[in-house]
Amino acid sequence: MAKLKVAVIFGGRSNEHEISLISAAHIIESIPASKYEVVMIGITRKGHWLHYIGQTDKIRSGEWEDDADNVPCILSPDPVDRGFIATLPDGDIQRIRVDCVFPALHGKNGEDGTIQGLFQLSQIPFVGCDMLSSACCMDKESTHRILESCGVKMAKWVSVRYRELDDIDAKCEQIANCLKFPMFIKPSRSGSSVGISKANNLNELRIGIKTAFSHDDRVVVEQGLSGTECECAVMGNDKLIVSAVGEIAPANEFYDFESKYTVPQEQTFIPARFPQEKSDEIRSIAERAYRAIGCEGLARVDFFLTDEGEAVLNEINTLPGHTPISMYPKLMEYGGMSASEEVDRLISLAIERAEMNE
Ligand SMILES: Nc1ncnc2c1ncn2[C@@H]1O[C@H](COP(=O)(O)OP(=O)(O)O)[C@@H](O)[C@H]1O
Ligand SMILES: [Mg+2]
User: Fold this and answer.
1) Residue bearing the CA closest to ligand 1, atom 25
2) What is the whole-number distance in angstroms between the Cα of residue 260 and the centre of ligand 2?
3) 86 and 187 part of one domain
4) How many whole angstroms separate alpha carbon 98 and alpha carbon 3?
5) Atom 15 in ligand 1: which residue has the minimum CA distance?
6) Phi, psi for residue 228 in degrees, rounded to 5
7) How many CB atoms neighbour CB 214 within 10 A?
8) Which of 13, 34, 71, 131 has a CB 3.0–4.6 Å from the CB of 113, allowing a cystine?
């Protein structure tokens, strides 16, 4: 049988660009070569799309960007093209048809529905959530509104709009009347904890809100929860695989950018060190939330198990990290699914969904 052509897209205009490079290298190396032929498409920090044909090590290190063989290459929104259009050095056009797209991207412009909209226009099967659910999960305010309306428990929260900065002191007072300190201030659409801060008093709240507004024009303030952070990996379209629950014991004040990508192995625990019935409750909420917000393919659903023993959903990541220390592949592996089986299944799910929609 002819091999299926899968385009792995990496990098991107996002503050998680570097993480995407590591995820992508790991994903490309896991794709079974007996079944698939990989086409590598890198997006620079400035947003240029390039067809790359070099080694995966250079993706990891960032050197891929300067490879002399790179040529500009964009995804055509025209379903007739069913793939990419590269511009060769002599000005000729080369069409690269593909059977599936695998976005190994994180955060803005990769995980927020924008690129998924382009995939939908192109009518090429793609791995992961569609445009709408990606956008809803990326936007913390929307996640709160949708999941709370479905009865999923999340932290108490307040939204802040840019115009409210005009009288920020009044807004902070108002927030302090609704929520207790400590509070977490988050840009509504961010990732990897960028722009997020913890406030213990009104002054820190004011500073935190201003900081968050430098990343987005909408900000969410949440009441701080005290407990254990844990994560659950979900895979599937209709029929779902829900992994065991993994626990994170952050080394820093909270699970910030630094601890996210430097956590030594011993600070994650699979399975989590709490009673089975709590894990089962978390797994069942993860499944309900995944379906409620319309996820398909994969997502990692993040929780707090509070000191009072309550499972509170924190967020859903629709393109969870796939670095060698990332929780999603580790949770799947714990359930007996190797990395190559995982990517193989994700590609099959993408193709199945496209066939269903035909
Ligand atoms: N309400 C909260 N209570 C306690 N800690 C929180 C709360 N919200 C966020 N955090 C901490 O901040 C980290 C990043 O917040 P999160 O909402 O997951 O943003 P991101 O999308 O950047 O991952 C969490 O992993 C957690 O450590
Ligand atoms: Mg998070």
Assistant:
1) 255
2) 9
3) no
4) 11
5) 193
6) -110, 135
7) 8
8) 131
Per the structure, the count of domains in the chain is: 3
Same domain flag for 141 and 71: no
Single out the residue in 191, 223, 255 at which a domain terminates.
223
Claim: this prediction has a pTM higher than 0.85: yes
Which ligand 1 atom sits nearest the alpha carbon of residue 155? 1
Which of the ligands is closest to the CA of residue 157? 1
Q: Both 181 and 195 in a single domain?
A: yes
Tell me which residue has its CA closest to atom 24 in ligand 1: 255
Distance of CA 83 to the CA centre of its chain: 24
Counting ligand 1 atoms within 8 A of each CB, the residue from 144, 156, 247, 314 with the most, and so the one to mutate, is 314
**Confidence band, pLDDT 50/70/90 cuts, at residue 190:** confident
The domain boundary, picked from 223, 248, 266, lies at: 223
Say which residues have a Cβ less than 8 Å from residue 73's Cβ, sequence separation at least 6.
41, 49, 50, 51, 84, 85, 86, 87, 96
Angular region, 123: left φ>0, alpha ψ -120 to 50, beta rest: left
List pLDDT tens digits, range 26-49: 999 999 999 999 999 999 999 999
Instruction: Write out the residue range of the structural domain in which residue 315 sits.
Output: 137-153+226-357
| Shortest-distance Cα residue to atom 26 of ligand 1 | 255
* Pocket residue to mutate for ligand 1, from 225, 255, 267, 327, most atoms within 8 A of Cβ: 255
**Considering the domain boundaries, does residue 132 fall inside one?**
no
- Would residue 26 count as lying in a domain? yes
pLDDT tens digits along 216-272: 999 999 999 999 999 999 999 999 999 999 999 876 666 676 666 665 545 899 999
pLDDT value of position 357: 81
The answer to whether the beta carbons of residues 162 and 213 sit under 8 Å apart is yes
